[in-house]
Automatic annotation (TrEMBL):
This is Undecaprenyl-diphosphatase. The keyword Transmembrane helix applies. Residues 51-159 form the Phosphatidic acid phosphatase type 2/haloperoxidase domain. It comes from Halalkalibacter nanhaiisediminis. The keyword Transmembrane helix applies. The lineage of its organism: Bacteria, Bacillati, Bacillota, Bacilli, Bacillales. GO terms for molecular function: undecaprenyl-diphosphatase activity. Keywords: Membrane, Transmembrane, Transmembrane helix. InterPro entries: PAP2/HPO, PAP2/HPO_sf, UPP_Pase. Gene3D superfamilies: Phosphatidic acid phosphatase type 2/haloperoxidase.
């Protein structure tokens, strides 16, 4: 099922050069936009600083969770097990979780919980980032969905932690 869903999207890779370029751009560069948003928030008012600290904490905790998961489990990337369209070179480390997806969803969720409009935009971009990782041939849909879930939960927990510490 996971491979069938992966194939439905990935088989389009390489057929539409403009879309391929967009997916490569999103996959490789969108995290810079998230960094810019966080830096901007760090220079904002007190409320924005809290959101930025919560988001950064979520990203760090999410990276730690990813590290622990990868210590105990390994899932081959799609291009290792199957003949797929791969648009970017990649490491052959574990496919799950997707670090790109983890980081953008952790930040977007943390921001969404306090700044709905900006957070909604970032969540949409996070979804595109996850989709781009399937498009370029690096991850299965379950990797993206699982990573989005883990990082969203981390963002919610860190947001509650920061709210309780502020009280």
């Amino acid at each position: 099922m996971d491979y069938k869903m992966f194939s439905a999207f990935n088989r389009l890779a390489g057929r539409y050069s403009l879309l391929d370029m967009l997916m490569i751009l999103i996959s490789n560069k969108v995290h810079y936009m998230f960094i810019f948003v966080l830096i901007s928030m760090l220079f904002g008012n007190r409320s924005h600083k809290k959101v930025a600290y919560s988001s950064i904490s979520s990203a760090i905790v999410t990276l730690f969770i990813s590290f622990v998961i990868k210590l105990f489990s390994f899932k081959y990337r799609p291009f290792v097990k199957h003949r797929v369209g791969i648009l970017l070179p990649s490491k052959t480390d574990s496919s799950f979780p997707s670090k790109h997806t983890l980081l953008v969803f952790a930040i977007a969720t943390s921001i969404f919980l306090r700044e709905r409009v900006l957070g909604s935009i970032l969540l949409a971009i996070s979804t595109l980032t996850g989709f781009s990782r399937i498009w370029v041939g690096h991850h299965y849909p379950s990797d993206i969905i699982g990573s989005a879930f883990i990082s969203s939960m981390t963002g919610i927990i860190m947001n509650k932690t920061f709210k309780n510490n502020a009280s």
